[in-house]
Amino acid sequence: MQVFPVGEKTITEAIISKGSSFLMEIVDxxxxxxxxxxxxxxxxxxxxxxxxxxxxxxxxxSFGGGMGxxxxxxxxxxxxxxxxxxxxxxxxxxxxxxxxxxxADVAESIAKLAASAxxxxxxxxxxxxxxxxxxxxxRVCGVVLQWSAIQxxxxxxxxxxxxxxxxxxxxxxxxxxxxxxxxxxxxxxIKVLGEGSMDAVTAEKNIVDITGEVCPGLWVxxxxxxxxxxxxxxxxxxxxxxxxxxxxAELISKSLxx
Length: 258
Ligand code: 48F
Known about the structure:
The chain is of the alpha/beta class. It has a domain at 29-69 and 121-256: FAD/NAD(P)-binding domain, CATH 3.50.50.60. Helix content is 40%, strand content 25%. It contains 9 helices and 14 strands. It has a 6-stranded mixed beta sheet, sandwiched between helices. A 3-stranded antiparallel beta sheet has the order 3-5-4. Ligand 48F binds at residues 34-40, 57-60, 65-67, 129-130, 170-172, 174, 176, 222-224, 233-238, 241.
C-alpha cells in the first residue's frame, strides 16, 4: 500500500494554523454552552439550528456527561415521551419498553447527540474548563476559560476570556457556572439551593419548568437547573434533560431576537 508521506513540519503547521482558526471562530460566538452532557448537546444543536453561533465548552476530552454511565453502568437509559422524539431526530435507535417508555443505548445516544449538534453547526471544544464569567454592567457577557490540563497541573497560567451574548450552565449536578456567578456577584441575588432527593416523576416535569434565565445573560438547563432551584434528582431517565436543553435553546433564541 502506498501511504502518502507527511512530515512533522506539515503536521505541526496544519494543527497550529487550523486549530488557531477554530479558536478564532469561537471567540465570536453568540452562545456559550458549558458542559457537553445531554442537556448541553441538545441545547447546542437547537441553538445552532435556530441560527445562533454556538460553542460547547467541555472540561473532559469526551462528551456525554452522566449519560455514558447509564444506570449503575448498565449501558441503557430510559427516555419517556415526548422526549424520545429528540433522540429519534438525532438518529438514535429506540426500543419500546412499555407505553410511553423507550430504551436507548448509551454509546449510541452520546455519539449521535454530539454528531447531531456538530452537523447542525455547533462547535465543541474539549478539554476546556470554564472557571469564571465576564460580568459587565450587571450582565453576564461571556466566560473565562482555561485548559483543563493546566488546571490539573496546578501551574499558575492566566486564562483567556471569551465574550458571548448568552452563557448556558449545563454543568450538571454541580451547577458550577451559576455557583460562581452567585458567589462572585452578590448583586445578582442568586441562591443556589442544591438538589433534593430522588423523585423521578416530579423531577422530570420540574426540570423542564425551571429551565430558564438565572440573571441577565446567564441561563441554566439540565441537572444544573435542579441544583440551582432545589429540585429533586431523577436517576437514569433522560427525557427531562433532553427537553430542558431544547427549551433553553428556544428561550435564548427568542430573547436574543427581541
Ligand atoms: O452531568 P451532565 O451529564 O449534565 P446534564 O446534561 O445531565 C445530567 C445527567 O447526565 C444525569 C442525570 C439525569 O438523569 O441526573 O446526571 O445536566 O454533564 C455535565 C457536563 O459538564 C461538564 C462535565 O464534565 C460534564 O461533561 N462540566 C462541568 N463543569 C464544567 C464542565 C466546567 N466548569 N467547564 C466545562 N465543563
